Amino acid sequence: MGRYSGKTCRLIFMLALTVGFFVAELGAGYLGNSIALVSDSFNMLSDLISLCVGLSGGRIARRSRRGPRAPYGYSRAEAVGALSNAVFLTALCFTIFVEAILRLARPEPIDDAQLVLIVGSLGLAVNLVGLLVFQDWGSCFRSRPPAPPPTASTLSAVPGGAPVGPVDEAGAFRLHPRLASLSGLPLVSLTSPHPSHLYPTYTQHSVSSLNAGDSPNDQKSPEEGPERKTERKSEALNIRGVLLHVMGDALGSVVVVVAATIFHVLPLDDAPCNWQCYIDPSLTIIMVFIIMSSAFPLIKETSTILLQMVPKGVNMQLLTDRLARVPGVSSLHEVHVWELAGGKNIATLHIKCQTPTDYQDAAYKIRKVFHDAGIHSVTIQPEYIDHKTSQLLCSSPCISKACDSQLCCSQRKPPLAKTNGYAEKN
C-alpha cells in the first residue's frame, strides 16, 4: 500500500478535478455571457472549500484527547465545519440571487451557447462523479456494524456537596463508533443515534449497583439489542455539508445545460431578447431556493449543538418529573441537558438529599432515568439539606457573596426559575 488510502486518493482526485473545472467554467461563463455557468463555477469553488473543510474537520475531530485548552476534546470540529460550509453556501447563494435579479431586469442572451453547453455538460459529469464518490463513502459507514457506545463512569458521592462527574476508561470522551472514516481517518458522527422519543427502543441492560466502594470504571456498556438496528442511520454533519455542496453544484450544472440547450436549439442570432433570455436567470433563482432549502436545516441543526440547546427528542418536562419522583431526592435544580457531538448527550444537575446514604441510593436511580432518556454522561452535584435554608437554595455557593450573580444557582430565594424550558422541581 502507498502513502495514501484509496479514499484519500479519491479525495485528492476530486480536489484536482474540482479546481480544473472551476477555472474552465469561470472562463467559459464570462466568454459565453451565461450567469448560470458563472454561478456554477463559484458553486464549484464552494465545493472545493467544503472538501477541504470536511477533511480538516475529520482530522481535528479524531483528536479525542482532552487537554488544558480543550477539556472536551475536538468532537465539535465537524459541527463547526458543517456550519461554516452551510453559511458560506448561503452567502454565495445570496450573491447569485442578486445577480440573477439584475439579469431579469436587464435580460441578455447567451453569446456562445455551444461552448456553455459543452462545459456545462462536463461540469454535470464531474458532479455526478462526486456524488458517486461521496455516496460510496456513505455506504461504507452505513454498512459498518455498530459498536458498543462508550461507557461513562459511575458516580461517587463527595461529602460536602462537591461536584462529581463521569470519566471513561481512557480518561477522555471517545469518538462516536458508528461512523466510518473520511479518507481513512475516523470521524465523529454528529447526528443523534437515539430515537426521536424519550424512551429507548433497544433492550435495557443490567447495571451493577452503585455502592460507596465501587470503582469509577465499573459501569457496564449497554447491550446491543435487535431493536437498535431500526435506529435511523447516522451521518456526519461535515459529510452532509460536502454532499450539500456537491448536490447544489449538480443542480447548477443542470440549469446551465437546460439554458444552453434552449439557446442552442433556438438561436436568437440578431433578434432582440425574448422569453429565452429569461430562462437563464429564472432557473438560477430556482436553483438558489432549492439549495437554501437544504442549507437552512443544516445551519439550524449545527447551531443547536453549538448553542448547547436541549437535544431533539429529549422531553425536559417529562424527564424532570421522573427525576423529582426518585426516592431520596428532596428537591432538584439546575438540570441541564445538551449534546456534545455524535448523539453524546450530557446532563448536569443539583439534587438535595437528607443524608449521604440517601444520595447513594438515589444516584443509581437518577442515572437510570437519564439512561432511559438516552443520556449516558451524567454529572450529579449532591447537596444536603440545611434546615436553616430552603430546599431550593444552592448549598455550594461561591466563597464571596460578590460573585452571587455569576453562580449557576443563587443563595437568594428566587421564585421557581425556568431553565432549559422547564420549571424547577421541589
Automatic annotation (TrEMBL):
Gene Ontology CC: membrane
Pfam family, one: Cation_efflux
Compartments where located: Membrane
Domain Cation efflux protein transmembrane: 11-307
Basic and acidic residues compositional bias, start-end: 220-233
Topological relation to the membrane, as annotated: Multi-pass membrane protein
GO molecular function, one term: zinc ion transmembrane transporter activity
GO biological process assignments: detoxification of zinc ion; intracellular zinc ion homeostasis; manganese ion transport
InterPro entries per record: Cation_efflux, Cation_efflux_CTD, Cation_efflux_TM, Cation_efflux_TMD_sf
Transmembrane stretches, start-end: 12-32, 44-61, 82-102, 114-134, 242-266, 278-299
Region annotation (Disordered) ranges: 206-233
Keywords in alphabetical order: Membrane, Transmembrane, Transmembrane helix, Transport, Zinc
Domain Cation efflux protein cytoplasmic stretches: 312-383
Biased composition (Polar residues): 206-219
Similarity annotation: Belongs to the cation diffusion facilitator (CDF) transporter (TC 2.A.4) family. SLC30A subfamily.
Name of the featured protein: Zinc transporter 10
Species in which this protein is naturally found: Calypte anna (Anna's hummingbird)
